[in-house]
Amino acid sequence: MANSIGLYLGEFEIQNLIATGRLTSCEPKLRIDGIDSSFIKNRMRSVGKVFDVADEDGNIKTKAKLADSFITTFGNPDPKMVSGLGFGSDVQACKEQYSAFWKENFPEVSLTDSTELFVSIWEHVQ
C-alpha cells in the first residue's frame, strides 16, 4: 500500500527530521481552514499513520509517522508544542519568536492570545 505525502519540507527541515527523529509544526487554525476546511479533521484522524516526506519539488525523501496532532492557543500553548519547537519549557521565548516569525512571513495573520494553533508532531521512520 502506497503512502501519501504528509509533509513537504525544505532540505534543512528534512535533514533536521532525520537527525533528531522528530519535527513539530504549527500554524493558525483559521489560516488552514481558509485553505481546506476538512484538513485538520482529516489530519487528526491520521495520528499513528506513516506518510511520505517530500522536498519542496515533490521528491519523496523519507517517511514520518504522525505521532500527535492537536489544537492549542497562542496565549496558552501546549507544553508539547513549546518543547517540540525547541524552547524546552520557555513559553515566553516560544511566543516571542513564533510571533516574530509570523509577522515577518505572514503579516496579514495577527496572533492574539485566543488564536488557535494547529500542531502536528512527526517522528522519523527509517
How would you explain this protein's 3D organization?
With 126 residues, this protein is an alpha+beta fold. The chain has helices spanning 11-20, 29-35, 39-44, 79-87, 91-105, and strands at residues 5-9, 22-28, 50-55, 60-73, 116-125. A five-stranded mixed sheet has the order 1-3-4-5-2. A hairpin with a 4-residue loop joins strand 3 (50-55) and strand 4. The chain is globular. The two termini are 17 Å apart. The relative contact order is 0.26. The model has no long low-confidence stretch (mean pLDDT 93).
In short:
The protein is of the alpha+beta class. It has helices spanning 11-20, 29-35, 39-44, 79-87, 91-105, and strands at 5-9, 22-28, 50-55, 60-73, 116-125. β3 (50-55) and β4 form a beta hairpin.
Task: Note the topology.
Blueprint: E1 5-9, H1 11-20, E2 22-28, H2 29-35, H3 39-44, E3 50-55, E4 60-73, H4 79-87, H5 91-105, E5 116-125
Parallel strand pairs: 1-3
Antiparallel strand pairs: 2-5, 3-4, 4-5
Pattern of helices and strands: EHEHHEEHHE
* Sheet of most strands: 5 strands, mixed
Shape: globular
Share of residues in helices: 25-40%
The radius of gyration is: 14 Å
- Spatial strand order of the main sheet: 1-3-4-5-2
Distance between the termini: 17 Å
Rounded mean pLDDT is: 93
- Quick one: how many beta strands? 5
Low-confidence runs: none
Relative strand content: 25-35%
Main structural class:
alpha+beta
Count of DSSP helices? 5
